[in-house]
Design goal:
alpha/beta, Rossmann fold, 16 strands, 15% strand
Length: 576
């Protein structure tokens, strides 16, 4: 039996040890774990209005068992598409429907004779074009994946690729599509109307970010050649471990209690490190924890992708989790150094790639436990809809006026223009007098307080060169401010950390990057293009952050994204 090894030597709690032990005793006394398995909503919220809201989101608890009944159906579908000559698959999704498959693709790759998977979860026209130009259209299966069935990004991507097939004269283009969605959605109807090859109807009592062990993750996994029986067996092993009523013997409960207590103690920056094969896991976990806990001005902020550093580089708001699949002496030494300095830290050792299935389940259960300690509902996402509604309003204005709202930069430094929402009011009142980009940056960074973090929100193509520049900016800010810095690509992060940004504690300083797109792609059946949609989403998010009185610096990088990022870095380096 394969299972995660979680020994005492792998857990270093520092000053929160006594609180963790006391909380474990409370969990036993109040039968918290038993009540979670009984789907007792009062574990999280006592008010009766939460009863159906929570109970209808707990189907993930038994997925390793229930989905075993669907393995034959999924694998038969895979055999069918391989026999029909498909060699590639492009998954069109956002958030929970895309991040799990992206992890599986990165960790497992494609087995011989199976389909190569690409995940497209952006409205950036350069990224859309990059995928469309890299595939063999005649041999590509498109997976349209959306729980709600009405996600605007997924709908737009479907329209584009369906249009491509029509333009190419493909007979029965719908046969090149498969849908994964809930019952009764618009996507289910769309699939039937357009003759999709198949519709996988997912259980409706599973939230998107808890769905990786359902059809949303298993269908792409099968297409890549992952052994679903072994995958679900591993997840089932973890499910069994997480059913133990003793929290000290329940890895999900234990990790949830540790991270929850750490957050209540001011250590709310859950800093994640992985060996190279597992780095993509951080994207999925970031979404799960941030979107689940970031509400009611509370939350735990996952910090993925930072380069592990010496203890003096971090503030006292950190807790560290490091996950190993292979030997990494350098990472292990850094983790040990942090533990010796009193930082709470957890080390997780995996046996092989299939242990990733258990990790999915482990963290889902742990996140549910975090919600218990924070006193929030970890299964809703109230602020995600807000940015979506803002985007819809901006697009409606575009249809009326033929253009997006014009933005006049407060300051301009070459191709880079900047605007800012500062606080307190005194700082905001000075912005009209600011004459240079350095002045504006100094005012923005002077607003940082104890325990604050920075979020880089980039509505740009996620190319290697762009990500390299973003990480240079991240490391610069981290070193100068000794603060956690997250990096998110838009609109992807709107379905991830976006909930935490608006619903979590007001401790973020947000830097939003937008750019002038060199070219654009129209969306069939819509009056707006991909670039217009992306920019409308950025504006909608900016307005949502403004509504919640967040500190925001909006940076227009100009026509060349990479040059604009370099220019911003050079300017910032002179200020902080």
């Amino acid at each position: 039996m394969k299972e995660m090894k979680l020994k005492n030597k792998d857990i270093r709690l520092g000053k929160i040890r006594s609180k963790v032990l006391a909380t474990m005793k409370k969990f036993e006394k109040k039968n918290i774990i038993k009540r979670i398995w009984e789907k007792d909503h009062t574990v999280w919220k006592k008010d009766e209005k939460y009863s159906s809201l929570i109970m209808n989101r707990l189907g993930w608890l038994s997925l390793p068992y229930t989905m075993t009944n669907h393995v034959y159906e999924i694998n038969e579908f895979t055999k069918e598409v391989i026999a029909d000559g498909f060699t590639e698959a492009v998954l069109l999704g956002m958030g929970g429907s895309s991040m799990g498959p992206e992890v599986l693709s990165s960790v497992f790759g494609t087995a011989r004779g199976y389909l190569k998977l690409r995940v497209l979860d952006t409205t950036d026209p350069s990224a859309v074009r990059s995928v469309s130009e890299s595939i063999d259209l005649e041999k590509t299966l498109f997976i349209v994946s959306s729980k709600s069935g009405s996600t605007i990004e997924v709908d737009s991507m479907f329209r584009y690729f369906f249009g491509m097939l029509n333009d190419a004269g493909t007979k029965e283009p719908g046969r090149r599509f498969v849908a994964i969605t809930d019952s009764g959605t618009v996507l289910q109807s769309l699939a039937q109307e357009n003759g999709f090859r198949k519709v996988f109807t997912n259980p409706s009592d599973i939230g998107g970010r808890y769905s990786v062990l359902s059809y949303f993750g298993l269908v792409p996994a099968s297409l890549m050649g992952i052994d679903l029986i072994e995958f679900l067996r591993n997840a089932g092993n973890m499910m069994n471990l997480c059913s133990n009523l003793d929290p000290s013997q329940n890895p999900g409960a234990l990790i949830g209690i540790i991270t929850g207590i750490a957050a209540l103690d001011g250590r709310d920056k859950l800093t994640l490190s992985y060996t190279n094969e597992l780095k993509s896991f951080g994207y999925w976990l970031e979404q799960l924890v941030a979107e689940s806990t970031g509400k009611e001005r509370k939350g735990i902020l996952p910090v993925e992708g930072e380069t592990p550093d010496k203890p003096s580089a971090y503030g006292r708001d950190r807790i560290f989790v490091s996950t190993f699949l292979s030997k990494d002496v350098k990472l292990k030494k850094k983790v040990s150094a942090l533990a010796r300095k009193g930082f709470p830290s957890i080390t997780i050792m995996l046996s092989d790639k299939y242990d990733v299935a258990g990790q999915f389940y482990l963290w889902e259960f742990a996140t549910a436990v975090m919600g218990v300690l924070l006193g929030i509902n970890p299964f809703d996402e109230p602020n995600v809809k807000e940015s979506k509604d803002n985007t819809t309003r901006v697009l409606n204005d575009f249809e009326k006026n033929g253009k997006l709202p014009e933005e006049k930069p407060l300051v301009k430094d070459g191709p880079v223009g900047m605007n800012a929402l500062l606080k307190p009011a005194k700082a905001r009142s000075k912005t009209k007098k600011l004459m240079t980009s350095r002045d504006l940056l100094r005012s923005f960074f002077s607003g940082k307080g104890k325990g604050d973090y920075f979020a880089l929100m980039a509505y740009i193509e996620g190319s290697k060169s762009n990500l390299k520049q973003l990480n240079r900016i991240r490391e610069l800010i981290k070193a100068a401010e000794r603060s956690a810095v997250t990096v998110g690509l838009g609109p992807r992060f709107l379905h991830s950390t976006g909930q935490y940004h608006k619903g979590g504690p007001n401790t973020g300083l947000f830097i939003q990057f937008v750019t002038g797109d060199k070219f654009d792609i129209s969306i069939p059946g819509r009056t707006y293009s991909f670039a217009t949609l992306k920019n409308a989403q950025a504006l909608g998010d900016y307005e949502a952050l403004q509504k919640w009185n967040r500190r925001v610096l909006r940076v227009n990088l100009g026509e060349s994204t990479e040059k604009g990022l370099r220019k911003f870095y050079d300017c910032l380096k002179k200020v902080i």
